[in-house]
């Protein structure tokens, strides 16, 4: 965002360290990121300079947003409950509930949702 106006929305693919790159015009921005299953994170006043690469640390994203609405709430819990105990190939398997990406919807996923329950992403918009 620049001056409260969204100037672009980009899809980026991360590497194993979570690094990604996009190209935008020089300026000062509030940068929001959102990953499926996780809450959004915003870093404000990021100075982007033409010809330079700027690194921004968004920290660890908070997992538990199964329905991708940027809020961890009852809808996410309901999805996890329905998929609990499943692995790929099971009729109730739902990849969106595998928050720790270990190939099973289990106690680790419940723990992530429980720890972040009630939280809203930095860039949430009603």
Could you walk me through the main structural features you see in this protein, from its secondary elements to its overall organization?
- The chain has helices at residues 74-83, 107-116, and strands spanning 27-33, 37-38, 41-48, 63-65.
- The mean pLDDT is 91.
- The chain has a domain at 65-116: Type 1 dockerin domain (Orthogonal Bundle).
- The longest helix is centred in the middle third of the chain and has 10 residues, at 74-83.
- The protein is built from two helices and four strands; from the N terminus they run E-E-E-E-H-H.
- The protein has a two-stranded antiparallel ribbon with strand order 1-3.
- It is of the alpha+beta class.
Which features would summarize this protein structure in a list?
two-stranded antiparallel sheet, alpha+beta, Type 1 dockerin domain, 126 residues, elongated, 2 helices, two-stranded antiparallel ribbon
């Amino acid at each position: 965002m620049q001056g409260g106006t969204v100037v672009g929305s980009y899809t980026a693919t991360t590497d194993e360290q979570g690094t990604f790159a996009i190209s935008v015009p020089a300026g000062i921005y509030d940068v929001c990121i959102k990953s499926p299953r996780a809450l959004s994170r915003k870093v404000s006043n990021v100075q982007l300079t033409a010809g330079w690469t700027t690194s921004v640390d968004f920290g660890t994203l908070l997992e538990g947003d199964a329905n991708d609405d940027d809020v961890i709430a009852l809808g996410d819990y309901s999805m996890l409950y329905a998929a609990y105990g499943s692995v790929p190939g099971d009729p109730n398997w739902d990849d969106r509930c595998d928050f720790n990406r270990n190939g099973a919807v289990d106690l680790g996923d419940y723990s992530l949702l429980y720890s972040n329950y009630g939280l809203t992403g930095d860039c949430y918009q009603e």
